[in-house]
Amino acid sequence: MWGTQNMNKLKLANVFLMIGIAVALGQVAAAQDYVAPRTSFGAPNLQGVYSIATVTMLERGEQFNGQLTITAEEAARIGQTGDSYLDDLTAAPADAEPDVGGYNTFWMDPGERMAVIGGEIRTSILVEPENGRLPWAEGAQRAIFGARAMGPGPFAGPEARPLGERCLVGFGSSGGPPMLPVLYNNHSQIVQTKDYVMIMAEMNHDARIIRMRDSDHSAIPKWLGDSIGYYEGDTLVVETTNYHPQQSFRGALRHFFYLSGDAKVTERFTRVDDETLLYQFTVDDPKVYATVWKGELPMNAVEDQIYEYACHEGNYALPGILAGARLEEKEKAEAQ
Q1: Residue ranges of the domains in the chain?
Q2: For residue 108, with 0-12 CB atoms within 10 Å meaning exposed, 13-18 middle and 19 or more buried, which class applies?
Q3: Distance of CA 29 to the CA centre of its chain
Q4: Dihedral (CA of 60, 294, 232, 172) sign
Q5: How far apart are CA 239 and CA 227, in angstroms?
Q6: pTM of the model
Q7: Is the dihedral angle over the CA atoms 300, 303, 308, 311 positive or is it negative?
Q8: Which of 195, 199, 223, 238 has the smallest CB count inside 10 Å?
Q9: Residues 6+ apart with CB under 8 A from 281
């Protein structure tokens, strides 16, 4: 027998659950009825500074049993601040020396919340395939990452080091496309004119210029690909291809993926309320993946501004890395 006290607790829990459902449905209805403001030239106004920081990963973890959405209670149980969700990103072996903190540790900001879209808490950015996992073509993952591991020595020269170390393009894929959250600098600014849309990522101040009057892509490979766009009602649609071959490896928090130079990424930016853009993308790369894959993220408006990202000016790491490799080579030669 539960007794009166337990029955009252159950009733109270049901009340809160119904309130939560009502709020979520109200948010969805409000988004469906929302009319986006317009620019002076009649396009949906998407301008502003936004953050895509979230602890929701690109791929869905096994702990979610294939579910795309979870309840607020389930999210609270796993710890939306990352207590049991992001710990393994920075966890060190028990016998390791104390971690003094990496590059500007106090700036690290992957967000504190799981992504919420339409009132639903998402367990992965990926929405297709249904299992929330990257659909690698047979043998592609092994061949790609194996070839990378067997490539030129990583300390042979600056050209072999990752692009982030060389300050050529932002770490991971925050500049996109697709635009995905990384450990810090997850802000982006959108500026619109009649002929162009500019999306500037905070990370390494990568600025992507989207041509709104062109229907054909440039044949010249670019770090962030070649982007052309058009408006479809209240949505900005952007198609990007012709990526620079050295920009093939990407990252998003703990997950890594690969895009060939011929990959085509189609993005959709839709303002769903005064504070939020819904960001959706489709990746079509048959050289690497067995099928297309799709993802969704909220872009949340922030009051912050984008500050200068002075990477080259303070980039003492790369000379140090290469100098260390030369010293190691010298010591080995002298020991023979």
Answers
A1: 7-36, 48-314
A2: middle
A3: 27
A4: positive
A5: 6
A6: 0.78
A7: negative
A8: 195
A9: 176, 177, 178, 179, 265, 266, 267, 268, 294, 295, 296
